[in-house]
Structure formats: structure tokens, C-alpha cells
Design brief:
The chain is built from 14 helices and 20 strands. By secondary structure, the protein is an alpha/beta fold. The chain has three domains: about 90 residues, Phosphorylase Kinase, domain 1 (2-Layer Sandwich); about 110 residues, Transferase(Phosphotransferase) domain 1 (Transferase(Phosphotransferase), domain 1); about 150 residues, Vaccinia Virus protein VP39 (Rossmann fold).
């Protein structure tokens, strides 16, 4: 297979063509569905488009007709665009920050007020015979005027008001049980600094389990590369590399119409990095590679070599399966950056080094920062405020530091160059 015909690159071109037709060439990817393969949200300055490929969405999604009807019932302007291979909902963009993003700045009393506003908004939605069924903090926007707006109706159902209310308040209703009901949102909102508590409570209802894919077609015709990815995600979910005991992989990933669940969407992160960083002809070193997706994607986008390291032997094995599935050959090693051994000499020589959310967890973060400073280019994610993290990179010699993206947790991914 030629590189240009690779499924990853082919789908990237298809997304670009669909979004260009709807919003123009400068739209940003702002959300990726956690439930439906190949369903994303893009936005420009004044409009947002929920775009879904019709060939891989599967029966579980039922298309966007129901979401369009739900928005119409709520008197929200929406256009349902249907093309041969994709469909979209085109809507005005709503200004505001997600509740998930705002929680760290809200005192307890204000969080209670926000929940009261969500309750009133839900009552209005249910009176129109609509159940949202996906009440996560990132689907609640806090508008500049102080009101809330519930968004993203791609899992909505239409029904009798009392049944739709039951579906959203406790998660029981048409379409089966949903753990993203109001009680779960309230728990997350009132104890935002204790995510593990929320997971443990949800675990009383839904215990973490290893990954089992519900194939859209008979298992006998599932491609070998998809099977390899499913094995990799099973290993990642059971390893201690992300959330020990929680059954979560670090990244959610959709490939060839199959969705592999995780804590955060890989495509949302990659799209921003790809637009900001040129990998063509460069040697990449990925510190804390986890499942190795960045190394693999860099190779698909022209990097001449990639080395990924992680301290967890199980996650390195998962990364090898991912690389095999995607048909690329990064060098993957088990290396502990907190070890007393001299690992720096063996890892020098890359043109670009990545350190995404790893320095914060190390007992000697300055050691890794000094190592980063010996290179020409870095992609870096820290946990502290933007000005603090920019100064860290500048202190080790990076004169040009630019923001690549702000994550769903309010952390900044930075691109540093000398």
C-alpha cells in the first residue's frame, strides 16, 4: 500500500473536503464523539458543524435525523445537510466555556447555582419531548450572560415527557441505561477535584472491564489491522499506564469505522499538532509514548524515524501492536526517565522531542527539561498555568514558544523552537 492510500491519510483528506464544503478551510476540530465512530464537531468564528460519515456510523447512531428533530423542537436553528458519504448539522456557534473547563475556577456555591440552571434547562428540554442522554460536563456550556446551554444532541431520543425526564435524571429510559445522567453530572460538578470518587461511584453500576468490541459486521471479516488494535486497547485498559483499576486506555481512537474507547480523543489532539508542526524528514523522540500513536502518525506524515519510550512494559507492547496495525516501524523501548541510569546519551540526536504530560509526574522534572533544552524543537504539555510553562521552556533555550492547543483539562500543549 502506498503511503498516500493509507486509511489514516485517506480519511484525513475526506474530513478536510467535507469540512471545507461546510465551513471553509480554516475551521478547527473542537470535539470528537465518544460513542459514534467518525462523528466530529468543527467550528469557525460563527458556526459549528457536527459531521458524521454515513458509511461507518453504524446502526447505534441512527443518523442525525433525530438530533435535527430534537433541536427543531427546542427552537434552535439547525440545517441538516446530507451528502453521499457524509451528513452534518450546521448551527450557529454558542459562546461560552464548557462546565468541565470552568469547574476549577468555580467555588462550591456557584457550582450549586450552575446545577440549578442545568435542572431548569433540562425541564424545558423534557417538556418538548426530548431526552439528551449524554449529560457530561463538556456538553454543558456556561455562556457569558451566566446562563447554561446544553449542547451535543447526537444521542438524543424523542418521546413522552415523563419518560424523557426519567432517561436524563437517572439514566433509565428508551435506548437503554445511560451512565451520563444528571446524578453523574451533579457528582462530577460537586467534587471536581476527586474524579476517582466519581469513577468509583459509577463503578457500582458499571464495573470496568477489558475492551470487548461489538463488531458491526461478522467477526470473520474484521480486518487483521483492526484486530491488532483491539488487542492493543485491551492491554492498555488493563495496564497501570493511565488509570490503574479503572479499565481506561489513555486515548480513544476511531480507525476504519471501529471505535476503541479511551479517556480522551486522539484525533482532537493530533489534528491540532499536525496543523502546527511539520514532521517531514525529521527524527522524532516521543517521551512517555503510551500507545505510540504520535510516533506512528509522525511516520505516516513524513518523519524519517521515530523512537518512543515509556516506563510501562505492558504499554510498550500495546504500542508495538498499534505500530504493526498501522503498518509503520517506530523503535519502541522501555525506559524509566526517573531511573538513576544515564538514559540521556542513548536518546540524543532527535530533531524534535515530545513530552506530553510527563514532566509533572517525575521526581526530578528539571532533569528532563535540561534534556529537552539540548534539542532544536519540542512539543510539550505541562500542568501549570501557561505563563509558568512558557517560562520553563524559555529557561532551557527555546526562544519561540507557541500554543498548539488547550486540552479539555485546561492544560496547554506548546511548540518550542530555538
Amino acid at each position: 500500500m502506498s503511503v498516500s492510500a493509507h486509511p489514516v491519510l485517506r480519511r484525513e483528506r475526506e474530513w478536510a473536503e467535507a469540512v471545507r464544503a461546510l465551513l471553509g478551510p480554516d475551521a478547527d476540530l473542537v470535539a470528537v464523539s465518544r460513542w459514534i465512530p467518525d462523528s466530529r464537531a468543527y467550528a469557525n468564528d460563527d458556526r459549528i458543524a457536527i459531521v458524521r460519515f454515513r458509511d461507518t456510523a453504524g446502526a447505534a447512531s441512527g443518523g442525525l435525523e433525530t438530533a435535527a428533530e430534537a433541536l427543531d423542537r427546542l427552537h434552535r436553528p439547525v440545517d441538516h445537510v446530507v451528502e453521499e458519504s457524509w451528513e452534518a448539522l450546521l448551527m450557529p456557534r454558542v459562546e461560552g466555556n464548557s462546565l468541565e473547563f470552568a469547574l476549577t475556577q468555580l467555588p462550591t456555591r456557584e457550582r450549586l447555582r450552575v446545577l440549578g440552571r442545568v435542572r431548569r434547562e433540562l425541564a424545558h428540554i423534557h417538556a418538548q419531548g426530548v431526552a439528551h442522554r449524554d449529560l457530561r460536563p463538556d456538553n454543558v456550556l456556561l455562556r457569558p450572560d451566566g446562563e447554561v446551554e446544553i449542547v451535543d444532541f447526537d444521542r438524543a431520543l424523542i418521546g413522552e415527557p415523563r419518560r424523557t425526564a426519567l432517561a436524563d435524571w437517572v439514566g433509565i429510559g428508551p435506548g437503554g441505561f445511560s451512565e451520563n445522567a444528571f446524578w453523574s453530572l451533579a457528582l462530577f460538578t460537586l467534587v471536581p477535584r476527586s474524579r476517582s470518587l466519581g469513577r468509583r461511584v459509577r463503578g457500582l453500576v458499571r464495573k470496568p472491564r477489558s475492551y470487548v468490541h461489538e463488531w458491526a459486521e461478522p467477526a470473520s471479516v474484521v480486518p487483521d489491522d483492526v484486530r491488532l488494535l483491539a488487542r492493543a486497547w485491551s492491554i492498555a485498559q488493563l495496564s497501570g499506564a493511565n488509570a490503574p483499576g479503572q479499565g481506561l486506555a489513555y486515548y480513544a481512537f476511531t480507525y476504519r469505522g471501529h471505535h476503541l474507547p479511551g479517556e480522551r480523543p486522539w484525533d482532537l489532539r493530533w489534528e491540532a499538532i499536525r496543523r502546527a508542526v511539520d514532521f517531514e524528514g525529521k527524527a522524532l523522540l516521543e517521551l512517555g509514548c503510551n500507545m505510540g500513536l504520535l510516533s506512528c502518525y509522525a511516520l505516516l506524515h513524513g518523519a524519517r524515524s521515530a523512537v518512543g519510550i515509556d516506563r510501562d512494559s505492558e504499554i510498550v507492547e500495546a504500542a508495538r501492536l498499534v505500530a504493526q496495525a498501522l503498518g509503520v516501524q517506530p523503535e519502541l523501548r522501555q525506559v524509566d526517565l526517573s531511573a538513576a541510569v544515564e538514559w540521556e546519551a542513548d536518546l540524543r540526536g532527535a530533531d524534535i522531542v515530545t513530552a506530553l504530560s510527563i514532566v509533572h509526574w517525575l521526581p526530578d522534572p528539571d532533569r528532563v527539561l535540561r534534556f529537552l533544552g539540548k534539542h532544536q524543537e519540542v512539543i510539550y504539555e505541562g500542568h501549570d498555568p501557561l505563563d509558568v510553562e512558557k517560562k520553563r521552556l524559555e529557561s532551557v533555550g527555546f526562544r519561540k514558544v507557541e500554543v498548539v492547543l488547550e486540552s479539555e483539562r485546561g492544560r496547554f500543549v506548546l511548540h518550542g523552537r530555538r
